[in-house]
Specification:
The structure holds 2 protein chains of 2 kinds. By secondary structure, chain A is mainly β. In chain A, strand 19 and strand 20 form a beta hairpin. Chain A is flat and about 60 Å long. By secondary structure, chain B is mainly beta. Helices cover 8% and strands 39% of the residues of chain B. Chain B is built from 2 helices and 18 strands. In chain B, the strands form 5 sheets. Chain B has a 5-stranded antiparallel sheet, with no helix packed on it. In chain B, strands 11-16-13-14 form a 4-stranded antiparallel sheet, with helices on one face. Chain B has a 4-stranded antiparallel sheet with strand order 15-12-17-18, with no helix packed on it. The longest helix of chain B has 16 residues. Classes of the chains: A mainly beta, B mainly beta. The interface between A and B is large, with 53 and 56 residues.
Chain lengths: 254, 257
């Protein structure tokens, strides 16, 4: 009987209800029985307000599986989840980097997210996750780096289709997430948030209401608030944080 | 539980902000901040006198250094370490053991006459009894155009000793060791990185002990601080340990050839 309940608990239907009602929720909707799967974090890019974004990444299939014929596809979306462009990078033995500035995006000064997927014609029977490093440079100064922190989408090594909505959500807006830092030293603080679930999410940040459609992104200026309290119907709404003081910025994940 | 740590040198100081609540908002105000440091090959535990408010403890740069580790506990939590005569760190309590989001402090470094950078840091208890090796790229977080590049390698080991082990700069394509540096357990080791080592071919590798590699970039008074993940973070399928073991074996053969 126990094993029957356990099996039901782990069916797609069971996980849907667990997440909906918050009974031992599954935070990431990843099928671990899948193979040849490339999972990407949602990485913020921004070119607004004199920002540039530098992405530094490893070719995971080449590094771990010695697959020298593999390549990566980096796919850009704007803040409203509209496709912008796709970059294919081939012949990367170990690591490479990509500068994302307004010229790269045809003059666009805005923000959004990008994903990186590893591609190969070879079979490796594996699932890999890219959560590499993104640096944010303001006014051409040294970039402040943060690693990827929000598992968000997947794509098969062989194909081009992308599955979004890895982040799970609850029926109720009762999930608390409090950033474990205190911002009293700073001129202002921004929170960069992305909806990695497959439905609209609703949230409060420091008692102000927001909503965000699937795949969309938002930058919220919390000014001189000392803390960030988030209440949402998303299980993992973890912001990237930017603290500003004088000419300096600091970027890190919550 | 998690430990927290800091760094200091002649031009960088650090501060730690330790929350009194977990990410989901649960507080435990009976927990105080304690410092553990090694004295005469025993763990010496002292309460930390620092400023605080309802939600945070603030460990300022006068209290931070490269040897002390910090943690949250209450007086009753010290029975276990008393029983072992302060010869081994113990799991003082489970308040800071959280999942899926880890309980973290903010480790902030401040450059003299310059900027600042931080990351949400922790050193989980389950790592302090482990020996092994760490393999990490360096070019993902350092740049040979910077004014200065520094790697911090933080190890916390349960036994109260500063044991030496090695950190190697290895070119994994040419299969050669570029440099070997002696580092120590229970220290925030700092290594200045020469620009010529900063290449996608070059990885750092430690023998005998694990730790957290943290990277500091400095340019024009601006600074960036971030850590790399261990290799197993990138493979989610069942072959992760086999693949990583194969790669580490290859690097081990390079350093022993």
């Amino acid at each position: 009987m126990k094993s029957l309940i356990r099996n039901l608990f782990n069916t797609k239907f069971g996980i849907f209800f667990r997440n909906l009602f918050g009974v031992r929720p599954k935070y990431f909707l990843i099928d671990f029985s899948a193979k040849e799967l490339s999972i990407s974090d949602a990485f913020f890019w921004r070119t607004d307000n004199n920002f540039k974004t530098l992405f530094k990444f490893t070719n995971l299939l080449s590094f771990f599986y010695k697959d020298k014929d593999s390549h990566v596809e980096i796919i850009f979306y704007d803040k409203n989840n509209r496709f912008l462009k796709k970059v294919v990078k081939e012949n990367i033995i170990l690591s490479d980097e990509l500068l994302i500035d307004k010229f790269f995006l045809n003059g666009l000064e805005d923000f959004g997210v990008f994903y990186i997927f590893h591609k190969s014609q070879k079979l490796h029977n594996s699932i890999i996750r890219n959560s590499c490093y993104v640096g944010y440079s303001k006014d051409n100064n040294l970039a402040s780096f943060v690693h990827g922190n929000l598992t968000s989408a997947s794509s098969d090594f062989l194909g081009t289709a992308i599955t979004f909505g890895i982040g799970s959500r609850s029926l109720f807006k009762n999930q608390k997430y409090i950033v474990q830092n205190y911002f009293s030293d700073y001129d202002k603080t921004e929170l960069l948030l992305h909806n990695s679930s497959n439905k609209k999410i609703f949230f409060l940040i420091n008692k102000i209401n927001y909503k965000l459609n699937t795949g969309c992104s938002i930058i919220i200026d919390i000014g001189k608030d000392n803390t960030a309290h988030i209440i949402s119907n998303s299980y993992l709404i973890r912001p990237i944080i930017i603290n500003y003081k004088s000419d300096f910025i600091d970027v890190y994940h919550g | 539980m998690n430990f927290f740590f800091s760094f200091k040198n002649s031009f960088i100081k650090s501060r730690i902000t330790i929350p009194r609540f977990n990410n989901f908002g649960k507080h435990n105000k009976s927990l105080k901040v304690y410092e553990a440091k090694i004295e005469k090959n025993l763990w010496k535990i002292n309460p930390v006198v620092c400023s605080f408010n309802d939600d945070f403890y603030f460990i300022d740069d006068k209290l931070t250094n490269n040897e002390s580790i910090f943690f949250l506990a209450e007086q009753d939590d010290f029975d276990l370490i008393k029983k072992n005569n302060y010869t081994k760190l113990v799991n003082f309590n489970n308040f800071t053991r959280t999942s899926p989001v880890e309980y973290r402090s903010n480790l902030k470094i401040i450059l003299q006459d310059g900027g600042f950078s931080s990351y949400q840091s922790d050193y989980p208890y389950y790592l302090i009894s482990k020996k092994g090796s760490i393999l990490s790229p360096i070019s993902n977080l350092l740049n040979n155009n910077n004014d200065m590049n520094i790697i911090l390698f933080k190890n916390i080991f349960e036994e109260p000793y500063h044991k030496n082990f090695n950190l190697f700069f290895v070119d994994i394509v040419k299969k050669i060791v570029l440099k070997k540096i002696e580092i120590y357990t229970n220290i925030t080791n700092a290594i200045n990185v020469q620009p010529e080592y900063i290449s996608s071919n070059v990885y750092i590798y430690t023998d005998h002990y694990i730790g957290i590699p943290i990277f500091i970039s400095i340019k024009n008074k601006h600074v960036s601080l971030e850590h790399t993940h261990p290799p197993h973070h990138y493979i989610l399928s069942d072959d992760k340990f086999k693949k990583i073991s194969e790669i580490k074996k290859q690097v081990y053969e390079i350093i022993n050839s």
